[in-house]
User: Fold these one by one.
Assistant:
Number 1:
Amino acid sequence: MSGAQLRAAAVGMDVDGRRLFDDVSFRVASAELLVITGASGSGKTTLAHALAGIVEPDRGEITIAGAPVRTLHGSTDRPALVTQDFGLVPVLTAAESVSLPLQVRALAKDEIRERVSIWLDALGLQSCASRTVAELSGGQRQRVAIARALVKGADVIVMDEPTAELDAVNRAIVLSLIAIELARGAAIVVVSHEAEVIARANVVYELPAPQ
């Protein structure tokens, strides 16, 4: 991977007839980390969802390698997303949750199990593999959501407050995994206010306070 992987060009979004943000423009190249900050209500989560192709901006365009993000369908072409609410199914186990992005790729069951095991181990979740999401703590659920995003090996990764529920030990683990993903060439966007995350950014983009 090389060049600008993720590009936001004059992106704007409205909520309930109110302009949330406007003219957001930046590029995140392969192996770069961009951190989005801003006041509460400035639209950080909405922008993260737009970057991941979950919602469409009202103005402007978001592209990956020149292609509109909403048109991408491949597992590694579409951005991986970690949401604030984790987006996990309560009745699935931790292992089943992490395996979902791999199951849609029709990989062999043994390969799926191996990859899931690697990521559960990386995030200290092996002991939780057979427990349902409903049985997990908030921090464990957050780590499951991170494992589910990273297991697919996406070229672009968008993470909304990925360390908010974590203690110091697990925060350090997640930051080290982000560094590994950057080293393999991923372009990563993280919404965060945490100094440890911001210190690692190549670029910090601050959304203006809501009007």
Number 2:
Amino acid sequence: MLTKSNLIIVPIEDSANDIHSRDVIGKKSDTTAGDSLVALTKIVDSVVDGIDTKADTISTAVVTTIPGTITTAQSDITAIKAVTDVLPDAGALTTIDTNIDDIETAVVTTIPGTITTLNTAVITDIPASLVTIDTVVDTNQDLLDGTTATPTAYRREYGVAQIKATTIDLEQAAASYDLFTGTTQDCILESLSIRLPNVDCSDDINLTSITIQTDDVTPQVIFDSTDGAVANLTAEAQLAYTGAIYIKVGTKVQLTIAGGASDAATVCDVVTKYISNVDGGYLA
């Protein structure tokens, strides 16, 4: 490299050999390490060669490398533009931003609040509900096994089979005696049974027969005088009816004694099964 120190190194006069120019000019074989004019010239040539090499490198960069880099950059910009050209408009981006805000609110506030509510439910509400359910189950079980009497309202619901029982003495004066009365709502009588005690009425002098029927203008007969003839009223005898008789509110089911009392009381059990046409109906 040509430096100031190189340039000021000039061959000086050799007093001993002042008559020879070769001492200043030097020889062809002198290297850049020497002090002769040949050596200095070689130093300049070396510097010029270095400058020329760097100039070639710069030229290559200007002609080839930089345009290639610019082309690549332009391609990248084109690719980016292709993406940005299909992005939603500002309104859609605003909506997206709003949605993100909503999600953030949900994550920060709503979801933790819901978790707190669920936690309360798991720790407090659900156990309390289970206790309530257990109480209800126990109550229903008590109803099913008879520990607690079934509520009257339930027994009188529409379509639920009901049972009504009563007793009557057959050794009474000839007359009609009330057994059951339709109450609150109309009912359907499905069966009726009468059972004598361990007393034989078949040899009674005055009693001739019994009948059971409604007190309608046109009575609905359950047992007629043939069924209830005194000859059939032996000890522990039973008369049974199955069918469907409409019992209006206020309608009575009666037992009629024909003949009259003969001896000691003969108390019979009478049981009927029926359903209410509407919630609340029953036979009194």
